Structures are given as C-alpha cells and as structure tokens.
User: What shape does this take?
Amino acid sequence: MFPLLKLSTKSLRFPLTSLSLSRFSTFLSEFERGKEEAPIPRFIHPTAIVHPNADIGQGVSIGPFCTIGSSTKLGNGCKLYPGSHIYGNTKLGEHCVLMSGAVVGDDLPGRTVMGCNNVIGHHAVVGIKCQDLKYKPGDECFLDVGNYNEIREYTSIHRSSKSDDKTVIGNDNLIMGSCHIAHDCKIGNKNIFANNTLLAGHVVVGDHTHTAGATVVHQFCHIGSFSFMGGGSVITQDVPKYVMVAGERALLRGLNIVGLRRCGFTATEIRSLRAAYTKIFMPVDENARGFEERLAEVEQDEELANVPTVCSMVKSIRDSFEENRRGITKFRHWSGS
Assistant: This one.
C-alpha cells in the first residue's frame, strides 16, 4: 500500500504546486501591468493657459502663467517653469524642461519637433520664424531637435527658410548662453558651443566640435568633426576635421591634439594625423609642390593612406573644394628657416 500511497501523493503534490505558481505568476503580471498603466497625475497651475486640444502626457507639470497652444504635444514628465510658452505645431518628447521665459515653437505653417530629455534655458527662443528675407509668408518651415541637448539662456534657434529644408540639431549638444543657430543649419552630436557662438544660415557642423566664446561662422560653411575654434574667431571658410583654427579671419593653427586625446584617439592615429598635416600644410621646402600635389602625396603614401582618420581628414579637405563650397580656412606657409 505504501508505494500506491506514495505515488498518489506525488501525483497530487506537483500539479497543485504548478497550479499555484501559475496563478501567482498571473497575479503578479496583472499587478505589474496595473502599476504601469496607472496614470501619473499632471499638475497645471490655475493661471496657466492650456488649449483644450493640446495633448498633455502623464506627469507633466505646467507652472504659473505658461501658455500651451492647440497643436502642442507634450511627452510624459515634461516640466514647464513659470512664464514659459509653447506655440504652434510643436511636439516635445518625454522629460523635457522649459525654464522661465523659454519659448518653443511658433504659429507658422510647419512644425517644431524635440526629442527627449532636452533642457531649454531661461528666455531661450527655439523653433521660431527665421531671419531670412527669402522666407515667404505661408511657407512651411521646420526644426528637428534630438535628445539630451542643453540649450542655455537667451539662445535663439530658428526654423528653416524653405519648405524643402529644415534646421536640425542632433543629440547631446551643449549650447551655452546667447548663442544663435540660424535657419537651415545642420548640427551633429556632442558639440559644445561656448557663449555667443553665432552660426549663420546653412552652416553644417559635424560631431564633437568645440567653439570658444564669441565665435562667428559665415553662412554655408562646414565645420569638420573633432575641430576646435578659438575665442573670437571669424570663420569664413570650411574647417577641416581634427584641426584648430583661430583669428579675426581664422587661420589653421595645427591639430586639435587635446580634443583628439579626450575623444579616445590612439597615439598611432594622432601620430599619423600629425604626419599628414605636416605634409599638407607645413612644407619646409621653399620649392615644395602645390597644394593639390601635397594632398595626392598623402593619399599615395603607403602608410598614411591606410589610416582611416587620415583618409577622413583628406576627404573633408577635398569636399571643401567641390562646387558651391567655400574652400578651406587659410593656412600659414612655413619655411625651413
């Protein structure tokens, strides 16, 4: 009898255990789903003006005297400090912050779109009409901003001047106080623009660039990735990748060694870039060949031609001489003396 009793006990014990676990698991999943779906309360101050058609996400906080337009969409967790305003067809991703006095969007055809976790500083103006006389009233204009950008106080960023173009800001950029980014600019990722950096229309900026204070960039210029621009520089032509420029009419000042090291470039890459830069921009022979010949020499060098960073720098230089481009920033001619 004992074997039969033992078997029946097993046959009862395990089905009951698995059934209990199954029910408990179902209860937990439903409990967690209920937690996720539970709405996070919004806070809207009584003095704020929020259009009833605005799409307000969960956990949004709107402070006193704010204005939210009819076509606005605010992602979850956004926070608007007192006296900040959002107008027009404007979309903010989750956890964006508008400090007091900030204005995002405009009542114009087109749209302003911002990603997540952006901070718009005090009295900054983002996504408004451009200052280009070619803009025709009624045309659509656009601004796209990525994620994790910090746009500090009194900065202005304008929408595009044409319906077939747009102003673009990438991710993880620090744009310090009183900067200006004009219509149709294209800004990459992880750039640092110090105070009063001014970019005219259609400027293209790569990644990991750094401007010192009061840098001015002429319209249609291209700023190569990992470059550095000294304080007070006036840039009227393209800046190649990996270099430093400075001056009232900016001149090439060498490689951005400190920036390259901080961004993780290896000693071998930096050494190769130095060799290429010297060949191209610092010929010691007074009878040295022309600029085109020196570029070709680097491209044909057995060692340098196989280094990707060198190839990237040479390409950025060559691209600057294509049609409708402005050429590269001037460089000093060196002699052996």
Remarks:
- The chain has five helices and 31 strands.
